[in-house]
Amino acid sequence: MKHRTHLALLATLVTGTAMAQDVAVSTTSIAQTWKTNTPGFSSSSYTPLTEYVGIDANRLSGKDALSFHFYGWGMADLGDQSYIGGKTTGDFTYGYLQYRFNQANAEIKAGRFTVNQGVGNEQVDGISGRTDLRGGFTVSAFAGSPVIFRNYSNQNMSQLASQRNSMFGGRLAWFAPKVGEIGVDFLEDGSSPSTQAAPTAAAVVYTRRLVGLDMKLTPYSFVDFSGRTVIDVAPLVAPVAGLNLSRVAEDDYNITFKLPQSLALSGSFVERNLFAYFAGSTLPNLFNQNEQGMFKATGSKLIWTGVPNLQVVADIRRTDRDSYGTTTRGGMDLRYSLPDSHVLAGVGYHRVNAADVAAVDVTAPAYSLSHSEMRAWVMVERGALSASLDGIRFHYSDPYTDPNLNGQSIETAVVGSVGYKAKNGVKASGDLTLENSPIFGKQTIALLRVEYRFGLAGKGEK
């Protein structure tokens, strides 16, 4: 997370909430506990407590146009340290003021928010705006500084912060009824996205300059087509000799056909140049991207719903990665529902055929990552009560050569959950996981979650 004190934003939270005539607050408390007995390591007991808080304050100063939105979390360890950064941590995901105009579907945001437009999915501290134009056109733009999370090593953190000192971009789109929408996007992450920011050709470059074309088309009622192409337009110097520096940072396309006889067929194609696409990702769920080279994946899915309450899904996906080779995953899921009884159930089987891992040492020249996956689950709702049971089983093909499996070919996990939703806005649930892992051995993991939602309204309102 950024080590900054957002005093203006915190002041806005206090004053904005006080003025609000319509405030909705949600809190989620999660308590977990588990113990590890990994062979070769000392045992540890973890009990992290996490709190999530969300606030939506609408109609500030009595007007519908102005609103405030906030969501953040904090965590503290009651047992051993479970997080690398310390026994306490936290962050706020977003916190911004939003003003909606009464014409042209226009709006302005200021604070911390997520930009989700064509080229990327970015978290920014800054300002953004959008509006509709004549002829079916829309335009949007944003500017500020990227939210930098400390999911990088200490040696790279200072270089990353100096390179990524600003972020701005925009999108121009055109919408046609019964056809769809096409947009052109631009994103610049860092004031001078180029390898000049790196002291040597082998150093990491965290800046980006991307141009994208995105579309979502529905020319016929039985066809949905969506996708985007992202081009890297920054100056490039190969950090590794022989690295493919394709200007195409990403191609990502999906198409779905709704066929007769209750059939739906979809296909997907993804191609990414990891060096260009992930050079400076701001989102922690996209991890600290150190990998380079090309990634390509093609897949298809067939869904059949010819029998009432039954859905059959068959899918296959092939991925090709420069560093890992080719992997194919295919299988089938059966999903059955009883709407009157509020019961959902399913079973599935998938097989993963993966390329062998290259030589590790002289005793393990190579090993396979291929495995099979079986899963079964059921969910039931009865009024305010809900319950679910989920079981999964992995069967690995090479347990004796793979150093991560410790000679164990089977990995299993069973997760049971029970929940209760009260009428006063309180929802409580508990999960219990029984796991037998080749790495961590037998584990029992418990989780308790409590959610509470309440609102405040103006005089005379609900």
Write the layout of secondary structure elements.
Blueprint: H1 7-19, E1 22-36, E2 44-46, E3 48-58, E4 66-77, E5 88-100, E6 107-117, E7 120-132, E8 137-146, H2 154-163, E9 167-176, E10 180-189, E11 208-217, E12 223-232, E13 248-259, E14 263-273, H3 274-277, E15 294-304, E16 310-321, E17 325-338, E18 343-354, E19 371-382, E20 385-396, E21 410-421, E22 426-437, E23 441-457
Antiparallel strand pairs: 1-2, 1-3, 1-23, 3-4, 4-5, 5-6, 6-7, 7-8, 8-9, 9-10, 10-11, 11-12, 12-13, 13-14, 14-15, 15-16, 16-17, 17-18, 18-19, 19-20, 20-21, 21-22, 22-23
Overview of the structural elements:
- It is a single chain.
- The protein is globular, with a radius of gyration of 25 Å.
- It starts with 6 loop residues before the first helix and ends in a 5-residue tail after the last strand.
- Helix content is 6%, strand content 57%.
- With 462 residues, the chain is mainly beta.
- Strand 16 (310-321) and strand 17 form a beta hairpin.
